[in-house]
């Protein structure tokens, strides 16, 4: 179990290697909640008065000092340090070889000719920093390849055609030419030249347009058109010459780069990620090592990531989903110092080998996502691509992105297909024990989409045909980033409280910081203007606008009285003019972006706006600037422009939500503190259950944080799992950000921990949308240092600077994951991109190398061992102690943990003298089925359905109970048998209908349940049904200490008096019957909200909220007490 077993220790140890100074996670943090916006997170006796006035409590000297120290880590100074320039290696010498005996061979000189013509046509060659190719020296090639192999390749320069052909035929899918060796050395040297330039700070990033490709080449083996492995050599070279400790290699060629994988599969200093066509091993290179189940060996276990595509026609949405859900989270935890890309373009639509449907715009998106890593140190090395037009346009799109051009809007991006989600689910399940950031909640384990929705999705997928490749256009801009600010907005101030948090100095300090850093000078400054009456009336009532205008002539006492009529509002004579100017300034910036004057922009404005309702001021806000700007954009465009509004202010933007809640043209996503409805603006408006109304249903998305100290890891998890998947599916044409910075470190109102670096990354990730048209509008944020640094960091991202290094000190908080999960569960019916389903692979039994934590790499990669010793001691999950079992099949890490498996147990005929006893739970979970190894040591069935196994409680509800020793005696054979889940719901196999919780979580077939319940006593062969418990769930905090009176497993249901199948609530310790009696425990959960219950039948634990079984260290005490009461002895291996 990841929470208590050795795998969690491994994860912590790995994390400490990436970031040895990570502080421990403080899960005990609590906060006091205010009534008014501006309430202090303090226990001061004057708290009531402070709340009433909305007065900002100044930071203590120690807290201020901590904040200053934190800010020093952000290097926003010295603009000259910001690298610019994209390096390009393109050498005509690389065309001086071809296949002598087959003119139709796909890998030929025409590939580079087509690329060059495209780059010249688009003017890209002149925009890049040109580097000449150089030869890779033998000692450099020997970082990956053997000297004997290099010398053999060198001799090919002197061979005739016949000799070359004979040698080439000894390899798979290669040809040789007298110039092959020279060109391969030049190709490797080209990438090394870019490594020197990037790490030597000559350029920011680069691309090597080279041939022959390299990622299939192995230590002493030519393979798949490849002689030397360029990216592998470059990774080792960067480590040796430049002292780089961590390298990320991303391989998006449609063929698996097995040569690169084999080079680093035992090395934790190189993270290898490959996304490729696999088709259950039917696609070249036909290796089991290409499947998701191969994750590395020894110390490198967990550092190999394979996402196999098992069907053709994969689209941009599938590739982007793999990056968002898997690659980016793991990469941020890994913290690479250099990113190398094996950039094959044979997954593009029209490629004869790949048969995929990705587009050049899609590869621009992938490039952009990678540019947020390693402070932008990114090098692309050309691999495959055999449709000349697609190849040229793919290279061009990626190069545009490296140069800082905006990503084109995707054509019909849609959502990832079921097959892609299946592969992702499998890969994530295999890697979860090794990466803290991959800890998933229930959304990856259960699929609860309505049947009609699934049918609709299948129909949509069936009708889709890849369109012709669009002709991409790249905007010609006068300037990149617009900046709007007007000092007159400082006229709005509090007449009665000069320490009010929404003070005039907020915008002044931001502008001063932008000027100090030279950022303001890099922007195009736009003149602010007041919003027109028509613009204001697009979101506000005429009566309200007139009421606010009337305040300009009010006296002080009248202003105070009028302000008190609203929630958390102060008004002065300048308020109306300042609010009108702030809103008009944002409209001016919208006009500039839509007209192409600028690509994106920053609006440093006040007062803020997102709380303002149609007819009421609220929470320091008067006119809803972002809402008016959205309506103005649609008016300027003359149509319902698709607009995404992301609101990351720590307070929920109630006004924005209400204005657009019936409008499907505006997608509103808010991430905010909610604290179960007690955080401003309070009530249920910010709950995840608020999804919009009428035609706008599903277009309001709320991520409601329930507590303080939410930070970078939590926001990025929300971005990767929820915000960006929905955003890409929505495919906006304009992005507006309600950029409040009161979730930042040091803010006196927010109590959260988002860093300037974190905001920079959030901004960068959003910049891939809407052709780069994104505008940040200042909302809240009340620590002057924090908001200045945060806005500066975001502005640098908008200007195209790579996001700064972001060190995540901890994984996402459990409470944050719970909030994200809850929102995903609510919105899966509306957004297909959130439908991560429970799946099973169709893969045949694997022939790949076995993977266990301590396994050494076998000499032959094609063998899998089978252990059949009569009795074998295998480490128990979470304990490290031996558990006796009969036989276990050893192979690679198996199917995702959410999958189902059927476990056949061959049972000896029991002696009538043997007393019947109920099987304790410690051997009804995965320990019994697999030998009890934790995830990073467990051996699994290498079939596609090879699943970690857990026997369901329903299979153990028997009248003839079995003792632990008897169960071990009966474990004579162990067999996994998984089948693909492609049948409609009416044809779901009986074993899947059994998967569910007898206390009321899921439906089960009664007849099958009864059949399995009595099978042990009546047959020689029993079939058990298996699921895997969650190793952790966010609701464990609801478990309360056991009452002093202890537990009584014989206690009847408190409602009906039934004695069979009873459960005890782990919050209040009341006992009720399960769903197959009278379902009183289910009714108790629905009434009380208590999530976790313990079965008195088999001592398993079920979480209603996660809809899954849970096994965690926090549950061992109560399980052990129940075991003592039930069997009169401690539960073995419970520590």
UniProtKB/TrEMBL annotation:
It comes from Suricata suricatta. One of its GO terms (molecular function) is actin binding. Residues 1-55, 841-940 are annotated as: Disordered. It comes from the Eukaryota. Keywords: Actin-binding, Cell projection, Chromatin regulator, Cytoplasm, Cytoskeleton, Hydrolase, Metal-binding, Methylation, Nucleus, Phosphoprotein, Repeat, Repressor, Transcription, Transcription regulation, Transferase, Ubl conjugation, Ubl conjugation pathway, Zinc, Zinc-finger. PROSITE patterns: ZF_UBP. Residues 1031-1129 form the UBP-type domain. CDD domains: HDAC6-dom2. It catalyses: N(6)-acetyl-L-lysyl-[protein] + H2O = L-lysyl-[protein] + acetate; N(6)-acetyl-L-lysyl-[alpha-tubulin] + H2O = L-lysyl-[alpha-tubulin] + acetate. The gene is HDAC6. InterPro entries: HDACs (IPR000286), His_deacetylse_dom (IPR023801), His_deacetylse_dom_sf (IPR037138), Ureohydrolase_dom_sf (IPR023696), Znf_RING/FYVE/PHD (IPR013083), Znf_UBP (IPR001607). Residues 1-11 have a biased composition (Low complexity). It is found in: Cell projection, Axon; Cell projection, Dendrite; Cytoplasm, Cytoskeleton, Cilium basal body; Cytoplasm, Cytoskeleton, Microtubule organizing center, Centrosome. Pathway: Protein modification; protein ubiquitination. Its main location: other. Belongs to the histone deacetylase family. HD type 2 subfamily. One of its GO terms (biological process) is mitochondrion localization. Its cofactor is Zn(2+). This is Protein deacetylase HDAC6. GO terms for cellular component: axon; centrosome; dendrite; histone deacetylase complex; perikaryon.
């Amino acid at each position: 179990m990841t929470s208590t077993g050795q795998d969690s220790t491994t994860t912590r140890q790995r994390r400490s290697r990436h970031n040895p100074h990570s502080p421990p996670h403080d899960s005990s943090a609590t906060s006091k909640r205010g009534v008014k916006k501006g309430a202090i997170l303090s226990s001061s006796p004057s708290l009531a008065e402070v709340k009433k006035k909305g007065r900002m409590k100044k930071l203590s000297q120690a807290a201020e000092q901590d904040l200053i120290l934190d800010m020093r880590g952000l290097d926003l100074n010295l603009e000259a340090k910001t690298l610019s320039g994209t390096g390009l290696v393109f050498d005509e010498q690389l065309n001086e070889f071809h296949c002598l005996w087959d003119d139709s061979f796909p890998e030929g000189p025409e590939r580079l000719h087509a690329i060059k013509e495209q780059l010249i046509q688009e003017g890209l060659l002149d925009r890049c920093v040109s580097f000449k190719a150089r030869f890779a020296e033998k000692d450099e090639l020997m970082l990956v390849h053997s000297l004997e192999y290099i010398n053999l390749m060198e001799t090919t320069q002197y061979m005739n055609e016949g000799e070359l052909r004979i040698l080439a035929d000894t390899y798979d899918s290669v040809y040789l030419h007298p110039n092959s060796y020279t060109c391969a050395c030049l190709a490797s040297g080209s990438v090394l030249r870019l490594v020197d330039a990037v790490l030597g700070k000559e350029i920011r990033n680069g691309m090597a347009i080279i041939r022959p490709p390299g990622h299939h080449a192995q230590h002493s083996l030519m393979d798949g058109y490849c002689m030397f492995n360029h990216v592998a050599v470059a990774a080792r070279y960067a480590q040796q010459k430049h002292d780089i400790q961590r390298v990320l290699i991303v391989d998006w060629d449609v063929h698996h780069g097995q040569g690169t994988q084999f080079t680093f599969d035992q090395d934790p200093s190189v993270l290898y990620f490959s996304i490729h066509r696999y088709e259950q091993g039917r696609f070249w290179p036909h290796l089991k090592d290409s499947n998701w189940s191969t994750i590395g060996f020894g110390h490198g276990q967990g550092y190999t990531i394979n996402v196999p595509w098992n069907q053709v026609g994969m689209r941009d949405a599938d590739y982007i989903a793999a990056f968002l859900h898997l690659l980016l989270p793991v990469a941020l935890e890994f913290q690479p110092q250099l990113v190398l890309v094996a950039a094959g373009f044979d997954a593009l639509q029209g490629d004869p080998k790949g048969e995929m449907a990705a587009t050049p715009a899609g590869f621009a998106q992938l490039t952009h996502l990678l540019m947020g890593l390693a402070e932008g140190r990114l090098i692309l090395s050309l691999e495959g691509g055999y449709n000349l037009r697609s190849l040229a346009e793919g290279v061009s799109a990626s190069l545009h992105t490296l140069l800082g051009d905006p990503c084109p809007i995707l054509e019909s991006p849609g959502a990832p297909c079921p097959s892609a989600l299946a592969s992702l689910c499998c890969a994530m399940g295999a890697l979860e024990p090794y990466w803290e950031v991959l800890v998933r909640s229930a959304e990856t384990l259960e699929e609860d989409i309505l049947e009609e929705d699934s049918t609709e999705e299948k129909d949509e997928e069936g009708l889709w045909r890849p369109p012709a490749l669009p002709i991409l256009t790249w905007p010609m801009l006068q300037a990149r980033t617009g900046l709007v600010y007007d000092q007159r907005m400082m006229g709005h101030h509090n007449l009665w409280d000069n320490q009010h948090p929404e003070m005039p100095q907020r915008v002044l300090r931001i502008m001063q910081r932008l000027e100090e850093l030279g950022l303001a000078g890099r922007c195009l400054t736009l003149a602010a203007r007041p919003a027109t009456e028509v613009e204001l009336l697009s979101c506000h009532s005429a009566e309200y606008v007139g009421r606010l205008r009337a305040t300009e002539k009010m006296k002080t006492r009248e202003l105070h009285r009028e302000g008190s009529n609203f929630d958390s509002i102060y008004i002065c004579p300048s308020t109306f003019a300042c609010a009108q100017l702030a809103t008009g300034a944002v409209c001016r910036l919208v006009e500039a972006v839509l007209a192409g004057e600028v690509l994106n922009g920053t609006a440093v404005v006040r007062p803020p706006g997102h709380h303002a309702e149609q007819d009421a001021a609220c929470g320091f806000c008067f006119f809803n600037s972002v809402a008016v700007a959205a309506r103005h954009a649609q008016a300027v465009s003359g149509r319902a422009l698709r607009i995404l509004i992301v609101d990351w202010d720590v307070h929920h933007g109630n006004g924005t939500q209400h204005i657009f809640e019936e409008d499907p043209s505006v997608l509103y996503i808010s991430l905010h503190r909610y604290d179960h409805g007690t955080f401003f603006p309070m009530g249920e408006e910010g709950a995840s259950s608020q999804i919009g109304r009428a035609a706008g249903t599903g277009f309001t998305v709320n991520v409601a944080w329930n507590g303080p100290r939410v930070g970078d890891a939590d926001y990025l998890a929300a971005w990767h799992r929820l915000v960006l998947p929905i955003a890409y599916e929505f495919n906006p044409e304009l992005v507006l950000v309600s950029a409040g910075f009161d979730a930042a470190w040091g803010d006196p109102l927010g109590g959260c921990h988002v860093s300037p670096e974190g905001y920079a990354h959030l901004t960068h990730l959003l910049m891939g949308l809407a052709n780069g048209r994104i505008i940040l509008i200042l909302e809240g944020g009340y620590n002057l240092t924090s908001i200045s640094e945060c806005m500066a960091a975001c502005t640098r991202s908008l200007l195209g600077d790579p996001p700064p290094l972001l060190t995540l000190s901890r994984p996402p908080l459990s409470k944050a994951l719970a909030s994200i999960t809850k929102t995903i569960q609510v919105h899966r019916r509306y957004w297909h991109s959130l439908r991560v389903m429970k799946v099973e692979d169709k893969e045949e039994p694997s022939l790949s190398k076995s993977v266990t934590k301590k396994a050494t790499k076998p000499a032959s990669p094609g063998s899998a061992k089978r252990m059949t010793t009569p009795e074998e001691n295998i480490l128990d999950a979470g304990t490290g102690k031996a558990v006796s079992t009969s036989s276990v099949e050893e192979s690679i890490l198996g199917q995702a943990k959410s999958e189902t498996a059927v476990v056949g147990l061959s049972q000896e005929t029991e002696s009538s003298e043997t007393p019947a006893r109920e099987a304790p739970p410690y051997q009804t979970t995965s320990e019994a089925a697999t030998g009890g190894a934790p995830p990073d040591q467990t051996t699994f069935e290498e079939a596609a359905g090879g699943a970690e196994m857990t026997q369901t409680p329903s299979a153990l509800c028997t009248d003839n109970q079995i003792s632990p020793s008897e169960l071990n005696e009966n474990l004579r054979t162990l067999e996994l048998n998984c089948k693909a889940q492609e049948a409609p719901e009416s044809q779901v196999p009986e074993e899947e209908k059994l998967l569910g919780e007898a206390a009321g979580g899921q439906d089960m077939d009664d007849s099958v349940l009864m059949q399995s319940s009595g099978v042990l006593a009546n047959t020689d062969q029993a079939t058990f049904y298996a699921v895997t418990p969650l190793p952790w769930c966010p609701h464990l905090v609801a478990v309360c200490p056991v009452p002093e009176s202890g537990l009584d497993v014989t206690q009847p249901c408190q409602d009906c008096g039934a004695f069979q199948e009873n459960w005890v609530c782990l919050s209040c310790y009341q006992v009720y019957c399960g769903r197959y009696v009278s379902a009183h425990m289910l009714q108790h959960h629905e009434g009380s909200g208590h999530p976790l219950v313990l079965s008195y039948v088999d001592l398993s634990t079920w979480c209603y909220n996660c809809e899954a079984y849970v096994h965690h260290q926090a549950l061992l005490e109560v399980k052990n007490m129940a075991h003592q009461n039930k069997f009169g002895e401690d539960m073995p291996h419970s520590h």
